[in-house]
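Recall the central idea of this unit: under ordinary conditions, the amino acid sequence of a chain determines the structure it adopts. In this exercise we apply that idea directly, starting from the sequence alone.
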Amino acid sequence: MDGKRNVPYIELPIFQGPLDLLLHLIQQNKVDIYDIPIAVIADQFISTVKKMEALDMEITSEFLVLAAQLLYLKSRQLLPKPQKTDEELQLEEDMKQNLVERLVTYRAFKEVAAYLSSKEESSGSKYFREINLEEIMAKIKPPNPLTGISLADLLQAFKAVLQRVEKGEDLSLYVEAEDIPIELMITDIMRRMILNPKGMKFTQLLRYRSRVEIVVAFLALLELLKDGKLKAEQSSSDKEIFIVPTAKAWDFRNEETV
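Accordingly, the structure predicted from this sequence is:
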C-alpha cells in the first residue's frame, strides 16, 4: 500500500463554515428553520463532517464546536422531561433559540451576497458607449446672445455712457490704445461678472474713467457676447440693457491665468 487512505469518491459542496453546512442540511430536508429536528440534523451534520475529514477537506474548530452543540442538544432531547430541571429546560431552549437566530442572520447575509453577486455579473456584461461631448456640442447651434436687441439699442446705450464720461471729465490728449489690451479688459469684465452673478446693467458695466477704457471695454463686451459667455437682456425697448453671465462663463478649464 502507498500509505494513502483508500476511500470511495464522494463529491461534497464547499461550505463557507458550519452555519453554511447546517443551513444546507435544513434546506435539503425541507424543514422549518424555526423548528429544526435536532436529532436528524445532528446525525447528518456529524456524518458530513466525517466525510469532509476523509477527503482531507479543511475542518476548522468552528465545525467541531457546532457539532458538539448539536450532539448536546440531541442527547438532552433523548432524556425524559421529568428528569430535567426548569433551569436545564431553559438552557436547552436558549441554546436552540441562539442557533436559530444565528442561522436566520446567516441566511439573510447569504441572500444579500447572492443578490449583489448577480448584480455584479449582469453589470459586467454591459458595455457603455463613450460620449463625445465636444462632438455633441458642435452639432448644437449656439443661441444668439443679442436676440431681441438691435444695433441701434447698443449704440444708444454706448452714447449714454460716453455722455456721462464727458460731463466734467478731463481726458488726456494722447492715449495709446496699447496701454489697455482687450484681453486685459475681457478679464476685468469677467471678474466683475463673477462678483455679480445675477448680472449688471450695461451702463454700470461700462463705467470706466476714460473714453479709451470705455471703447476697449465695449469691444471686450462684444467679444464676450459673441463667445456666449455673456448675454444681453432687455425687458422692453425703453428699458436698460442688462448683461448676465451664461453657464459658459463658469468654465475655466481652457482659461489662462492673467
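Confidence is low (pLDDT under 50) at residues 1-11, 170-175.
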